[in-house]
Write a structure and sequence with these properties.
Distance between the termini: 50 Å
Helix content: 25-40%
CATH architecture of the largest domain: 3-Layer(aba) Sandwich
Number of helices: 8
Structural class: alpha/beta
Mean pLDDT: 85
Strand content: 15-25%
Radius of gyration: 18 Å
Low-confidence stretches: 1-7
CATH class of the largest domain: Alpha Beta
CATH topology of the largest domain: Rossmann fold
């Protein structure tokens, strides 16, 4: 389950439980990752702003600043992949994490093997997306910036989250094709689709609003009732 480049991958783990933090550091170290530990949100945010990490593994319930606050502030400056950890099981907490730009969510308790699989999957996805998809997704009027995980139009940035960027890139690669919710959950959100999970609808709503805000009207995201969504050309 280990990536070829994992020995050079730097992970920032922000966890206030000293026992779990020690287990995280020990296991990931054995997997070849370079792990830096921090135990509160403020200190973790400061380090994430000043140093380059390949991934951040962060608890939601942290002293000082909670993980959602840290993530929201971090996303204003950095697009580093973030996996949230939390014992909170409510759907609203998962949705809040993805809304702030989290790349994955680990509900506690979890096994070290599951954590490693999730980390490998996120790093593999990021490496794949940065390998050259940018040239194949957009209209000439839109600029897709893979490193920034954002789009610009008329010199304005949309301010997409990482998940929103992946969704929009997928819609552009499959423009004029109706994509089912099950497909989008599996291939973009990387989890099984549930009729009670509204996070995809929330992401699409945010994309629509942000594209409207920068004045992009060449294409629009339409709902295909009973199926999912389709990116279509605007009618004249």
């Amino acid at each position: 389950m280990q990536l070829e480049n994992s020995p050079s991958s730097r992970i920032l783990a922000i966890e206030d439980d000293p026992v779990l933090a020690a287990h995280l550091s020990e296991h990931l170290g054995r997997c070849g990752f370079a792990v830096t530990l921090r135990h509160d949100g403020e200190e973790g945010l400061g380090l994430a702003r000043t140093e380059a990490f390949d991934l951040i593994l962060m608890d939601i319930m942290l002293p000082g600043r909670n993980g959602l606050e840290v993530l929201a502030e971090l996303r204003q400056q950095r697009r580093v992949p973030v996996i949230l950890m939390s014992a909170l099981g409510a759907e609203k907490d998962r949705i809040a994490g993805f809304s702030q730009g989290a790349d994955d969510y680990l509900p506690k308790p979890f096994s070290m093997v599951e954590m490693q699989v999730r980390i490998d999957a996120v790093l593999r996805r990021v490496a794949y997306e940065r390998a050259g998809q940018e040239a194949h997704v957009g209209d000439l009027s839109l600029h897709f910036d893979e490193a920034r995980s954002d789009i610009s139009y008329a010199e304005q940035w949309a301010g997409l989250t990482t998940t929103e960027y992946r969704l929009l890139a997928t819609f552009f690669r499959h423009r004029e094709e109706a994509l089912s919710k099950a497909f989008l959950y599996q291939h973009v959100l990387h989890r099984a689709y549930s009729v009670h999970d509204r996070s995809l609808d929330m992401h699409v709503s945010h994309i629509r609003r942000k594209m409207q805000r920068i004045g992009y009207t060449d294409r629009k995201l339409e709902t295909v009732w009973g199926k999912g969504y389709v990116l279509t050309s605007q009618e004249a």
